[in-house]
TrEMBL record:
Domain T-box: 18-181
GO cellular component, as recorded: chromatin; nucleus
InterPro entries listed in its UniProt record: p53-like_TF_DNA-bd_sf (IPR008967), T-box_DNA-bd (IPR046360), T-box_sf (IPR036960), TF_T-box (IPR001699)
UniProt signal peptide: none
Name by which UniProt lists this protein: T-related protein (inferred by orthology to a D. melanogaster protein)
One GO MF term: DNA-binding transcription factor activity, RNA polymerase II-specific
Keywords recorded for this protein, A-Z: DNA-binding, Nucleus, Transcription, Transcription regulation
Length: 202
């Protein structure tokens, strides 16, 4: 099974351009039904800019400082189901519902990922065939694939900036607390400081 046959696409691509709280989901194809695969996700900063919401849109506000650039380490978070059989990947989208975000470095652990506020990010998926017998990942690049899609890019915030997002959040986010958002003006992928997953995490 070679990389040329293995493919990935965003499973809920239409939500990323319209809704504010899509689940991180992928559809994987071209895998060996009898093989086993390791899936891991990272949240990668797209550029070294900081953004602000101005006149109804996001604009560049300046550069990220050198110290902040150095602190932006990328972490890989393995899928919570561990190694996944190829036959299962071919049947259903794979969701990373266990992921949550924080803007406080001390809370970064497990499936909680640290992001810097007002910076732009994109989820990146790594798929690698594994040898269950030796519990090792494949050594050949033919059995690995890295996937990302710009449609999933978002700006991490702690307070909503776009009033229209309040309505979308309440409509599509199953964890949204309606009364809370009515008192706030909202944005794209907000974060929360607590260590538990929240209604404001991605």
């Amino acid at each position: 099974m070679h990389c040329a046959e293995l493919g990935v696409k965003v499973a809920n691509k239409e939500l990323w351009s319209r809704k504010i709280f899509p689940r991180v989901a992928f559809e994987v194809n071209g895998v060996d039904p009898l093989g086993s695969y390791s899936l891991a996700i990272s949240i990668v900063r797209v550029d070294n800019y900081k953004y602000k919401f101005e006149d109804g849109k996001w604009v560049v506000a300046g550069h990220v400082g050198l110290n902040e650039q150095k602190s932006a380490e990328t972490r890989l978070v393995q899928h919570h189901d561990g190694f996944i059989r190829g036959s299962y990947l071919l049947k259903t989208p794979i969701y990373f519902d266990h992921l949550s975000l924080t803007n406080d470095r001390k809370y970064e652990a497990g499936a909680k990922i640290y992001l810097q506020t007002m910076c732009k990010y994109r989820p990146v998926l790594s798929v690698c065939r594994v040898d269950i017998g030796s519990v090792r990942t494949a050594s050949s690049e033919d059995d690995k694939i890295i996937f990302s899609d710009e449609v999933m890019e978002f700006i991490a915030v702690t307070q909503y900036q776009n009033a229209r997002i309040i309505q979308l959040k309440n409509q599509f986010n199953p964890y949204a607390k309606g009364q809370r958002y009515k008192r706030r003006i909202a944005s794209t992928a907000p974060m929360k400081r607590e260590s538990n997953a929240s209604d404001e995490s991605m």
